[in-house]
Every structure is written in C-alpha cells, then in structure tokens.
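Possible regression after last week's pipeline update?

I re-ran a chain I had predicted before the update to compare outputs. Posting the input and the new output here so someone can diff against the archived version. Not blocking, just want to make sure nothing changed silently.
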Amino acid sequence: MKIVNRIGHWEQHPVKTYKTRSLSAVDHLILHHSGVSSGTPESYAQYHVHTNNWPGIGYHYVIQSDGTVYKCQKLTTISYHTGNFNTKTVGICLSGDFSHSIPPKPQLSAAYELVRQLMLTLKITENNVLGHRECKGHETNICPGFSMTSFRSNISPLSKRNVSKKRNRPLLKRGNTGLYVQELQNRLKANNVSTGEIDGIFGPRTEQAVRTFQKRKNLQVDGIAGPNTWEMLLQ
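New output (post-update):
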C-alpha cells in the first residue's frame, strides 16, 4: 500500500478552519464512495470548499482506483464527512461510483490494509467500521455502495491473522510500509521509544527509533528490524 501525505496540499477555505480532537476520541471509521465515476482528492477539496463552504477536504483519506492512498487530514482533525458523526470518526473515501459495481481489486486491497492499520492505531474493532449509510440518520444514502458486511468479513484484528508468531515477522528497513511497520512502531512505543506518528511508514524517525532500541538492548545497531530485533521487541 502506498500512502501519499497531502495534508494541507489542496484547496482550503481562506478563513474557516476545522476543529481538532485527541486521538483517543476517535471510535469509528466511516467508509464513503465519491459517487462519481472519476475524481481526485484535489477535485473533492475544491467541491467541499467552494460548493459546501467547508474549511477544507472532508475526508481524512482518499483511495484511488490504482490503490494509491492519499492522506488528506490529520486523524486529530474534525473534518466534515458524515453529519452528526464527525467529532469521533475518520472518513475514508474510495473514488468511484459503486452503487452498481464493486471497487477494483487494487483499490479494495488498499482499503482493507488501511482500515486494518487504523484499527490497530485507534484500537477500533471491525464492528466500528461502518458505511456512510449505516450511520443513524443517513440510512437513505446509498454510500458507499458496496456491501459493508462483506467488507467487514475481510478485516480482522492483527491478533486473528496469524502474525503473532515470531517467524512471520519480515525484515523491515527504511522505505517499507504497511501493517508490519505499524506493528513495529507500536512495539517500539510500548518499549518507550518514540517513532513519531504511528503511520505504517518506515521513515527516518522509525529508523532512528530502531537504532535507539538496538543500542539499548546491545544489538547490532543498523536501523533494520531483523530477527534479533523482533525477538527483543516481542519479549
């Protein structure tokens, strides 16, 4: 999964700004579709600002048909995407109209992976992953089009996915992304080593955190999470 950070990159209201919240306040993920056959985060931002008169793009994440994930707002931003549910939710939009079709495989796969990462970060269960139309007061909305029952059946906590065994942890280094990187970041944090934001991206801060942990545990200090580093992290 490729996550492209574009926070603050697209159209924003000249005066209005979104409020913020603590990360612990978030308790649901809400999935949307754009409802149009083609579209981009940039076009959604323009519509949300100029037509809806919102402070900026309403979605926290937008997933394109090729599986590229755009991060559009911080998780601590109370953006507008589902009326009466915005203060405690994260909005994820899949570009496309899925009222009579399903998302392309790369897009759906990226949605599964992103949602699993956010479930870990925010300590959210699959029961709290909802489609727009499943929110009270929005039942007449067709969004996100595809079956949320099917979607939820394909996501489950990391603990249920047979990744708890040490032999299943891959070697990780700078440039890697995904679920295992997020687990690495969470385990470093549990060992009082900060990686910054837990985003599933193995960047320079995560590499430095690995080096700090390795030095503390008298391991080879190379910034790479290999078998010995994982073994110490999993103790």
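Follow-up from reviewer: compared with the archived run. The first helix runs from residue 41 to 50. Marking as no regression found.
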